[in-house]
């Protein structure tokens, strides 16, 4: 295997753990279609680089299994468009004009972003607009995806409820220092989908491995 192939496989492992939160070596090998021996070599390298960590979990009568997940350093490998500069800028603004004024500025920013999204989403079906929203978020560095909510009754499958997931936060540094931006994100999604009710189901800032939203037609 070439160095480029090894690098690509390691990135695939990191992306899988980002989406699934955690996995054992065997599951990773099956998902990525490589041998258990190869996956263990990659996991050992990633652990040495500080990008992943593991805990030993007993599974039945056999030996404990190593369950792998991303470390904070591993999460930081994924796109973060604003980073420390944005946090520093907001800190400077807070010192200059006060936290209330910074909150007003952030609110104006999401309102402007909402107007931009509304124009780009158009007037299609709810599924088409959610798909376009996810595409826009992906272009901004979010590892986003969406899917319809399955009905418990197969004969009554719903077409007006969707889950939007973001497996990373492209503005994580900002969100940690100014958590109000997460509230603005929720308000923004509701504003660009005015015919829907939008609820947060998961939140990275509360220790969960993704941000998730339930979008349902009113």
Tell me what the structure shows.
Residues 13-83 form the Winged helix DNA-binding domain. It comes from Coleofasciculus chthonoplastes PCC 7420. This is Iron-sulfur cluster biosynthesis transcriptional regulator SufR. With 218 residues, the chain is α+β, with helices and mostly antiparallel strands. The protein has helices spanning 3-20, 25-32, 36-48, 72-75, 83-97, 99-121, 126-139, 172-177, 180-192, and strands at 23-24, 52-57, 65-70, 144-148, 161-166, 196-202, 211-217. It folds into 2 domains: 3-75, Winged helix-like DNA-binding domain superfamily/Winged helix DNA-binding domain (Arc Repressor Mutant, subunit A); 83-217, Muramoyl-pentapeptide Carboxypeptidase, domain 2, CATH 3.30.1380. It contains 9 helices and 7 strands, in the order αβααββααααββααββ. The strands form 2 sheets. A 4-stranded antiparallel β-sheet has the order 4-5-7-6, with helices on one face. The chain has a 3-stranded antiparallel β-sheet with strand order 1-3-2. Helix 5 (83-97) packs across helix 6 (99-121) and helix 6 (99-121) packs parallel to helix 9.
